[in-house]
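Hey, I'm writing a tutorial for new members on how sequence and structure tokens pair up, and I'd like a real worked example in the thread rather than a made-up one. If someone can provide the structure for the chain below, I'll link this post from the tutorial.
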Amino acid sequence: MSIIETVYASAPSEHVILPTLEILVPGHDPIRVVSGYEDIEATLETGETVTFQAGPFAYKEPSKDTRGVQTLTFSIANVTGEAQAAVEAAIESDAHVPVNYRVFLSTDLTAPAKRPYKMVMRGGSFNGMMVQVEAGYFDLLNTAWPRKRYTADFAPGLRYI
């Protein structure tokens, strides 16, 4: 049994679960937030050591239904306005914006306690001092199959059929 499974099962007092959120908007500084009262320096799975700023954030897991779309909603504090500016820039640019959710343990900040969730930002909204970010996994239901489409650009001979 891994240490994170033990912490989930028995909640020992020496281990505190630290959920973190990272939003990588192109052209802006990364938004890195840890749900807690103190900033932490943690090592990512890539070996890079980064600082996560303390601040409240909440997340809502996707509903369990037959839609096939896995969308998670995150709410983070926007006291300084940095998060709003970055999310607005991401929405306007239609760029690929990675969103990473990681869980660390307070006793071991050298690596995430479990495999991080890697998602893509799908949208965002602003409600008072909170920024809500919608992120999702790969959308399998709306993916074309077979992936290669036989169009006139791909197969020029189709123009003559």
